[in-house]
Every structure is written in C-alpha cells, then in structure tokens.
Design brief:
By secondary structure, the chain is an alpha/beta fold. Helix content is about 35%, strand content about 25%. The chain folds into three domains: about 5-135 and about 305-340, NAD(P)-binding Rossmann-like Domain (Rossmann fold, 3-Layer(aba) Sandwich); about 140-300, Dihydrodipicolinate Reductase, domain 2 (2-Layer Sandwich), CATH 3.30.360; about 350-430, ACT domain (Alpha-Beta Plaits, 2-Layer Sandwich). The strands form two sheets. Strands 7, 8, 9, 10, 11, 12, 13, 14, 15, 16 and 17 form an eleven-stranded mixed sheet that branches. It has a six-stranded parallel sheet with strand order 3-2-1-4-5-6, sandwiched between helices. The longest helix has 18 residues, at about 105-120. The chain is elongated.
Length: about 425
C-alpha cells in the first residue's frame, strides 16, 4: 500500500525523537496505521546536521515553506515552535490541502480558533496531542474517551519544570532561586525560564484543554496566570504542617456563572494522588459527571515521550486520511456549529478556599482583630497555626486556612488586615483546592 508522506518541520529534540521512533518502530506503526508512514522531507535551518541525523533516508531542505507547498507531502508535522512563522506555515499547509500535526501549544492557544476554522473550510485535520502534557494522551481522553460525560472540571500539573522546582523546594528546604539554578544546570529549566516559572506555558495548555472540555473557543488571553517565582519556602513548610502540598495547577471549571480558567500555586491535600506527583512528571485530573474523577500521569516533555504523542496523531490522521470530513472527530470535540461562547470568569469572581500567612506583633488582641475583619467579610477559618516566637523575637507568623469564599471578599479582608498596626508587611495569599 502507498505510504503516507510526511514533511517534518524541525528536527530538534522532539523532531529528532519523532524521526527516531518512526524509524525504530516502523513495522509496528505500519500494522496499526494500515499503511507505512514515511518522512519524505525534513526542513531545518541546520541542513548539515539534519543530513547526518536522517542518514540520506529523505530529502533535506533549509526552506520550511517549500515543504508545505510540496505536492508529494500528505501530512505536515510542525515542530519548530514559536507563533509567527509557525502560524504562517500551518495556515499555508492547510490552504494547500495538507493535514497538520503540531506540538505547538502556544500557537494553538493564541491562534487555534483561526487555524481550526481554516482546517474545517479546507476539509483537513489538525492534530495536536503532543501540545499538552507530552506523552500523556489527555487530548484523546477529553475528545473521545470521555465524550459521554459533561466535564465538570480539570486540574493539572502540566509543566514539568515548575513541578521539579516545587518538589526540590519541599524535599530540600531550599529557596526558589537556589532550586531554579539547579534545574537550569540539569536541563529542566531554560536559560530564560519565564514561560515556565511564571505559568505561561501551563496557561497555553490549559486553554486548549478547557476549549475541548466545554466546547468553548480558545481563551488564553482571558486566563488568570500566576507563577511560582515569588513562592517562599516557608509557605511550603507551613502547608506541609497543615497536611497540604503546593503545586502549580492549571484549573478550569464549569460554573453556573461561567468558566474558570486559571493557573497559580495551589495547596492540595497531601493524601490526593495528584499531590504526590513529583519531579518533572505531569498529571491531569479530569472530573466527569458520569465517570467521576480520572487521573492521567506520565512524562510531560522529552524527545521520545512527546514523539509518542506526535506519532499517535500521525497514525490517527493516516487512518482517517480518506474519510469524509463530516465523519472525523471534531478538533475541539464538539461539532463546529455546536460550539458556544461561554463567559470566562475574572479571578475576582472565583470561589475558593485560601491560605493566609501574616507577620504580626506578638501581643494580645492581634488575632481577635484579624478574625473580626475576616468575619465582617463573611469568611470563616478552618485551621490555624501560630508559630511560637523565638527568644527575644517580638514578631511571629500566623497561618490560616479559610472556608470557601469569593476572591473579591478575601481581597477586601486582606486590605483591612494589612492596615492593622500590628500586621507587618504584605500578607501571603494562596488558593486551596480539595479536588473532590
């Protein structure tokens, strides 16, 4: 049977892994796909290195646009990253009637609505399993495996760099800055780690999952994003004492008022499975009304784990290559005419429980003043730690966990508490999720 010809754009870490796994497992992949999948051309700026990697098994070019216009290419695999050039290449491939496989979460989060609309018009597929959580088949689960369910919420550890940093901070009691340097030395963090540690990478992935879960448009620009760079090791220790662990979570929930779309450090009960995901691993917890809570765990990055997802998409597209477009799985799970524009809630309207840490003067009446302000804003306390001051110390820490309240209420209470003369400096506020 005639092979499906693939044009590979980029043969870096993921592209190299994809090429290697396709070659190593060619027989198994052919048996599953029903026909051979052959990389016929690779585009990369480093042409000589690419020739060495491919060993003369395919054509090599430095011009990616020549690949998306090549009449012999059936599927374009975009693994160059970034948004501007990648968007041009993907849209041109679609315009030329080619199916696209991409691992580019930033591209889809920012331009997915445009890309999927163009693909529908041309009757081609855009597959993107590798864009979220590396080798974990979470897109397949959301689009197909859980299709009977009304998805209630998703909570995910979807950035391995930040999870490694938080795990090391907890295990070794080190500061964020110290662990970040170690993560960079080990290759877990980039020289410029902003996209990871400030939550942007996780927000890209969350936006994609949220759209699939709720049949909504991509809404990355409306996501609330807060990273871990200002997280103090003291809060990780206090959270442990209260029976919680801190993880950077991407959370999206369907509520009566709209959809929550938020990334931030979160306290999770230590007994939850997702709280025990350590190192650079990823995990996604999905709650459906019929199935309940389901957990998906694995490597969220790396050459071959991500290649596993890229090739799964290649097999899917190959199987459906000649199928009527109306009978393919929709890009975002819902039929295009059934998509809705749900309201994305501002963070001030989100309802959550909260962790508060405040530095106060060690004298009578301070705690009463704090609890009075919380009560005035309708906020009750679940648990509290008051650290015993050391010898000669005149200040101490008070740590509180609250019941659920709307974020604007906790914000108002914090303003009032910080105005108390006995409260020193800013209050640390972190969100708490039970994930039940």
């Amino acid at each position: 049977m005639k092979a499906i010809n693939v044009g590979l754009l980029g043969i870096g870490t993921v592209g190299g892994g994809t090429f290697a796994v396709l070659r190593r497992n060619a027989e198994e992949i052919t048996r599953r796909a029903g026909r051979p999948i052959h990389v016929s051309i690779v585009a990369d700026r480093d042409v000589e290195r690419t020739r060495q990697l491919t060993g003369g098994s395919c054509r090599v070019t430095g011009d990616a646009f020549s690949v998306v216009g090549d009449p012999d290419v059936d599927i374009v695999v975009e693994l160059i990253g970034g948004c501007d050039v990648a968007r041009e290449l993907v849209l041109q491939a679609i315009a030329n009637g080619k199916h696209v496989v991409t691992a580019n979460k930033a591209l889809l989060a920012r331009h997915g609505n445009e890309i999927f609309a163009a693909a529908r018009q041309q009757g081609v597929m855009v597959a993107f399993e590798a864009a979220v959580a590396g080798g974990i088949p979470i897109i397949k689960a959301l689009r197909e495996g859980l299709t009977a369910n009304r998805i209630e919420w998703i909570a995910g550890i979807i950035n391995g760099t930040t999870n490694f940093i938080l795990s090391e901070m907890r295990d070794k009691g080190l500061s964020f800055a110290d662990v970040l340097r170690e993560a960079q030395r080990l290759g877990y963090a980039e020289a410029d780690p902003t996209f990871d540690v400030e939550g942007i990478d996780a927000a890209h992935k969350l936006s994609i999952m949220s759209a699939i879960a709720f049949g909504n448009s991509m809404n990355f620009d409306q996501a609330y994003v807060e990273g871990i760079s200002r997280l103090d090791a003291a809060d990780i220790r206090y959270a442990e004492q209260l029976g919680y662990r801190i993880k950077l979570l991407g959370i999206t929930k369907r509520t009566a008022e709209g959809v929550e779309l938020r990334v931030h450090p979160t306290l999770i009960p230590a007994k939850r499975l997702i709280a025990n995901v350590e190192g650079a691993m990823n995990a996604v917890l999905v709650k459906g009304d019929a199935v309940g809570a389901t957990l998906y765990y694995g490597k969220g990055a790396g050459a071959e784990p991500t290649a596993s997802a890229v090739i799964a998409d290649l097999v899917d597209v190959t199987r459906m290559h000649t199928a009527d477009p109306e009978h393919r799985v929709p890009h975002l799970a819902f039929q295009p005419d059934a998509m809705v524009d749900l309201v994305i809630l501002p963070i001030s309207e989100v309802v959550s429980s909260y962790y508060l840490r405040m530095r106060v003067e060690d004298r009578p009446g301070v705690l009463a003043d704090v609890t009075r302000i919380l009560a005035d804003d309708g906020i009750s306390i679940v648990a509290m730690i008051q650290r015993e001051p050391g010898e000669g110390e005149e200040q101490t820490d008070i740590i509180m966990l609250t019941h659920k309240t709307r974020e604007r209420n906790i914000d108002a209470a914090i303003v009032g508490i910080e105005a108390l003369p006995a409260v020193k400096g800013r209050i640390v506020r972190l969100r708490v999720e039970d994930l039940l």
